[in-house]
């Protein structure tokens, strides 16, 4: 189970860094699609915030301890922080697509580890996240066409 907890903590770190990144983009997006993307980014960071809480509580429910400091998150995250500057609408969509692809791979890996550990609750939680990332990736891909 410690392998699952470790993977969940890395995912928790990634979600926290992604939350800040998406909110940063929400503030700094520029371009023809401003209104659409600005609203979508708020939807994304609200959802990410809910996932942060769910993942932390899942870690606790399987007798782990969720990481809770930005210092720790930045040490272990797989997500690159955003700069504090204006970003073009299509550029940020491309970056988020790459980030969501990485997170999809990460939750699939967590699911496999949870299945191996007979941790059915975590496995089921990852199923929901997998479907969510697949939908986001389909939509972002369609937007970029």
Helices and strands in order, then pairings?
Layout: H1 2-28, E1 29-30, H2 34-61, H3 70-76, E2 87-88, H4 89-116, H5 120-144
Parallel strand pairs: 1-2
Helix pairs in contact: 1-2, 1-3, 1-4, 4-5
Tell me what the structure shows:
This protein is an all-alpha fold and 145 residues long. Helix content is 79%, strand content 3%. Helix 4 (89-116) packs antiparallel against helix 5 (120-144). The protein is globular, with a radius of gyration of 15 Å. It starts with a helix and ends with a helix.
Q: What is the gist of this entry?
A:
The protein contains five helices and two strands; from the N terminus they run H-E-H-H-E-H-H. The protein is an all-alpha fold.
Number of strands: 2
Shape: globular
The end-to-end distance, rounded to whole angstroms, is 42 Å
Strand content: under 5%
Please give the radius of gyration in angstroms.
15 Å
What share of residues is helical? over 70%
Mean pLDDT: 97
Main beta sheet strand tally, sense and closure: 2 strands, parallel
Key traits:
about 140 residues, mainly alpha, two-stranded parallel sheet, globular
């Amino acid at each position: 189970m410690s392998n699952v907890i470790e993977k969940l903590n890395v995912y928790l770190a990634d979600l926290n860094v992604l939350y800040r990144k998406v909110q940063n983009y929400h503030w700094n997006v520029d371009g023809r699609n401003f209104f659409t993307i600005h609203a979508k980014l708020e939807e994304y960071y609200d959802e990410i915030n809910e996932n942060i809480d769910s993942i932390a509580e899942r870690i606790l429910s399987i007798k782990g301890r969720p990481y809770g400091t930005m210092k720790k998150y930045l040490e272990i995250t797989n997500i690159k922080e955003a700069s504090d500057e204006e970003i073009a609408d299509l550029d940020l969509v491309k970056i988020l697509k790459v980030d969501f692809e990485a997170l999809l791979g990460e939750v699939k890996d967590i699911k496999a580890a949870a299945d191996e550990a007979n941790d059915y609750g975590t496995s089921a939680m990852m199923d929901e996240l997998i479907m969510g990332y697949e939908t986001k990736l389909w939509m972002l891909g369609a937007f970029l066409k």
